[in-house]
Amino acid sequence: MTWLSRRWSVTDLCRLLNVSRSAYYVGSRKVIDDSRLKIKVRLRELYSASRGTAGSRTLMHQLREAGIPVGRWKVRRLMKECSLTSRQPGGHRYRICPEESVASPNRVRREFLSHGNRIPLWCGDIGYTFLRPAMVFKLMKRGSRDGQYDRE
Where does the HTH-like domain lie (predicted)? Predict the structure, then answer.
């Protein structure tokens, strides 16, 4: 717009572009900060290296290690200017199998006491028999009078 103002008046150009004259003059006097641009470039590099998971604190520490003295709030503003947001990976979801396995059916079905009496159910893991042949796991849920469970 500055090179157009040589030919036409600023008032007419601002009216044509739907910009107030005060906003034009503020923008024309604004000086581009080279150090800020360098920090933005380095910020984008570090952000992409972290695959979008680094936040303002992590990026601040990484910039300081690179020799750029910067605070967390400045990093936060620069991230907002660059439209960078920290995205954390989701948590692990356990697979829910609707049907029972044919190879190894669930015979316990969380009934750790056999047939309602106080005889515990004993079971072992065949995968560990070659390591510890004497290892047997005792799965027992024993209730006490106050409703709490005792540990064995």
Answer: 38-89
